[in-house]
Design goal:
The protein is of the alpha+beta class. It has eleven helices and 20 strands. The strands form seven sheets. A five-stranded antiparallel beta sheet has the order 1-2-3-5-4, with helices on one face. The chain has a four-stranded antiparallel beta sheet with strand order 17-16-19-20, with no helix packed on it.
């Protein structure tokens, strides 16, 4: 977003209806469109016409290819399609993330330690995924981390991304760039992205970029000098543990050799802080390339391979030991399905009946399956060499003697008597339960009904809508900007700031009014950014307007 120009008009795209401007940058504008089929809201990034004569088209094409390759990751913005409008402007159709990006949020309120750690692990996994695809982002900063409808961070703007080891590219953001990138001979590798991610998390916790000093000059020259030589200032919050300060200091070391070597290593260090604070540990989502070559899915005959996302927890769950095999005798037709845990033993008979072996069952009632009778080939070959018989196995394998009593017959008669007695008791109990209240004259038990309080209640606060109708009028005392609140509530206030001409972040001030008057910019173009903030601290997406 920059104050040097007014935004361009949205292009006409078949199947899409423009809704509003979402933001402007040095290379492109981003618009909200309504897609007709499938019906959904999408963000469309459109390259500026004056950038089409330079190498920006190549960068734009590279961004489309990189995002298409990586956008299946849950923490990377999804790209739906790319094309060229009828007026010749290239565009990207991307996932629309309606919530304020991290830059808007950290200016309005400080992030909690828990949320900063969660975002760090999730975005760290996205960066690791890009690095494994041999892609460096090279512009990680709060403004390039959007927030989805489900409150997940989504890394975007791969416009200056490059292959690992490639040369320098323009368009860097100085406040979140490491020393080796802002130096006289810029270089970058995976550890440069680690530095920028650490600087981003630092900003979320302190409310400003790492080397920005309140009340002092913070031009690009001053920031570069501090990035190269000044130590990282302590965060200065009582709820931030020293371990998190140390993790960020290492990630932002002046020398790349002193940093975490990979984004994965950085994310694991953040997980350890979560464990120390007894927080829920955020999983690390990365692509799994380690599928065994010999594993073939029957459904596709091994012709299709899908690389899934794997969640890496800090420690694997303990595995319960297998339980001892049950001692029971199946009848002739039905066998309980279970896995053998001991070597089969020969009973001395010519026929060996094997219990079917399947995968372990989940906890719950046992399953039963019918096992077909063994074939002649199965009855001819023993399953294993015979083992020395023990007293138990000898007794089990010995044929019954002629004088043995008919145990099975007596057992069946006893079973029928037991079942009959149990049925009698149940019937008597039901009769008493139904008749006793009527005999005694007592009221029947009321039927429980669900109350309104039993139903789930959505307690997630809804972010306010962005200011609408923001416009400026030039007068004798300056430029007056006015706007409206689409859904005002008690306690609403507005954060506003003049957008600097150099493209840096505006300094936001508070007001309860829906208008401000500012001095006209000498260049002739004056831009103001305004956002709504609720009494609970939730902020809207920003609205920006310029006058010429």
């Amino acid at each position: 977003m920059s104050g040097r120009r007014a935004p361009q008009a949205p292009p006409e795209l078949a199947g899409f209806t423009p809704v509003e401007l979402l933001g402007s940058g040095g290379f492109a504008d981003v618009f909200l469109y309504e897609q007709e089929l499938p019906r959904r809201r999408v963000a469309v990034k459109v390259l500026l016409p004056d950038r089409m004569a330079t190498g920006s088209i190549d960068e734009f094409t590279a961004e489309a290819n990189v995002m298409a390759m990586l956008s299946t990751h849950p923490a990377i913005v999804t790209i739906y399609q790319a094309g060229v409008a009828e007026d010749g402007r290239p565009y990207l159709v991307m996932e629309y993330c309606p919530k304020p990006n991290l830059q808007v949020r950290y200016r309005a309120e400080l992030f909690s330690v828990a949320e900063a750690l969660r975002i760090g692990v999730q975005v760290g996994a996205a960066v690791e995924t890009a690095h494994r695809a041999d892609v460096l982002h090279r512009d990680i900063k709060p403004a390039n981390i959007l927030v989805t409808e489900y409150n997940r961070p989504a890394l975007t703007d791969f416009g200056i991304a490059s292959a690992a080891g490639a040369g320098d590219a323009g368009g860097l953001s100085i406040p979140w760039s490491p020393p080796e990138v802002v130096g006289e001979k810029p270089t970058s590798d995976a550890r440069s992205d680690v530095w920028s991610l650490g600087a981003t998390l630092y900003s979320l916790l302190v409310g400003r970029s790492p080397f920005e000093l309140p009340g002092q000059r913070n031009t690009g020259v001053e920031l570069i000098t501090r990035i190269e030589s000044a130590p990282l200032a302590p965060i200065g919050r009582s709820d931030v543990p020293p371990s998190l300060q140390r993790v960020l200091q290492r990630a932002m070391s002046k020398s790349p050799a002193d940093r975490y070597s990979t984004a994965l290593e950085f994310a694991r260090a953040l997980q350890k802080v979560q464990i120390e604070l007894a927080h829920s540990v955020t999983p690390i989502d990365i692509l799994d390339d380690g599928t065994p070559a010999g594993v073939v899915d029957d459904a596709d005959d091994g012709l299709t391979r899908v690389r899934g996302v794997v969640s890496i927890d800090p420690a694997p769950a303990p595995v319960s030991p297998p339980s001892a095999p049950e001692q029971w005798a199946p009848d002739d037709a039905t066998r309980r399905s279970r896995r053998e845990t001991a070597a089969p033993q020969s009973s001395g008979d010519a026929t060996v009946v094997r219990v079917a072996a399947i995968d372990p069952l989940p906890a719950g009632p046992s399953r039963f399956e019918t096992v077909p009778a063994p074939t002649a080939a199965q009855t001819a070959a023993p399953a294993a060499p015979p083992l020395p018989p023990t007293s138990a196995t000898a007794a089990a394998s010995a044929p019954p003697s002629a004088s043995a009593p008919p145990v099975a017959a007596r057992s069946k008669r006893g079973l029928w008597f037991a079942l009959g007695a149990a049925a009698f008791v149940v019937v008597v109990g039901v009769i008493l339960a139904l008749a006793l209240p009527a005999v005694l004259g007592g009221p029947a038990a009321p039927t429980p009904e669900a109350s309104a309080s039993d139903r789930p209640i959505d307690v997630v606060p809804v972010a306010p809508g962005a200011p609408e109708g923001l416009a400026g009028a030039v007068g004798s005392d300056g430029v007056t900007f006015t706007w409206t609140n689409p859904a005002p509530e008690d306690g609403d206030e507005y954060l506003w700031g003049v957008v600097p001409r150099d493209g840096s972040d505006p300094v936001l001030e508070r007001t309860a009014e829906t208008s401000v008057t500012v001095a006209a910019d000498p260049s002739g173009t004056t831009c103001v950014q305004v956002l709504t903030r609720r009494a609970n601290g939730q902020a809207s997406a920003p609205s920006t307007a310029c006058t010429t």
